[in-house]
Design brief:
A 3-stranded parallel beta sheet has the order 1-2-3, with helices on one face. By secondary structure, the chain is mainly alpha-helical. It has a domain of 98 residues: NAD(P)-binding Rossmann-like Domain (Rossmann fold), CATH 3.40.50.
Length: 145
Amino acid sequence: MELFGQASHKVVVDVTASSAFLPIASFGYNCISKAARKMAFDTLAKERNDIKVLYFQPGIVYSPGFEQVIKQTFNPELKAMFQAVVDNKETMCQTGDHVGRVLVNYIEKDEFASGKFVNATKENDPEDIETTISKMKNVTTDKKN
């Protein structure tokens, strides 16, 4: 890849979410785009041993998008989960500064395997994807079936 030039340390970071792995009712386009991006980066990780791929989930960082989900989702469980975040921003959300420091820390330490998914928690204690998915499953599945 010409993009990296002569850099000796090559890392691609995909800032992602659980929707890359979980079907979430009313998040169809988001899930599709994140899953497609993940496949592209998985392929890059397999094809290029000189480039490390890191999937980074920042956790909950409040943004105006939360309000949009609350107003537009048809999934009552998802709406309730997002409303709880808005109602408890101080305890549930991380700051962008914190998330940035966690990401830089991962890249500087360079102790992750290419293709690794890491979830930065508020305590700066990363979870693996299996833990994240198990926490999200009850909230994100469409219980109409």
